[in-house]
Amino acid sequence: MKSILDTEAAVKQAVEQLDRLLCDLPQVQEFQALAAKVRNNQTIAQLENEIKEAQQAAVQFGHYGKENAQKAALKKADELTQAYDRHPLVVAYRAQLIEVNDVIQYVTQRIQRGVEELE
């Protein structure tokens, strides 16, 4: 009978192998490439900062009871968020994220079924 340490080492090795296999999938490689492009895109970074600033301004204006300024800041934040959501890299990134999540969900379900069959 295997000891707990042997079993733990075997599980760790299997997880590492699964991780390597998943990283080799074209869907995961495409996702990683898109994630890097999003991280390095100045337009996206600028939009994120502007959204954050507009949201912070809205909170501050609300705190000081400046309703018109708060509404204007919220409107600006909404417009910036829409621009962010429509950016081609963001759209591609989110689509690829869904695809990779589907793959991971499939793998997770297969592992769960395998464990249930052992019981």
Structure, described:
With 119 residues, this protein is mostly helical. The protein has one domain: YheA-like fold. The chain contains five helices and no strands. The longest helix is centred in the last third of the chain and has 31 residues. The two termini are 17 Å apart. The mean pLDDT is 94.
Key features?
119 residues, mainly alpha, 5 helices, YheA-like fold
List the helices and strands and how they pair.
Elements: H1 4-24, H2 26-40, H3 42-63, H4 67-86, H5 88-118
Helix pairs in contact: 2-5, 3-4
- What is the count of DSSP helices, taking H or I runs of 4+ residues? 5
For the report, how would you describe the main beta sheet? none
How would the global form be characterised? elongated
Distance between the termini: 17 Å
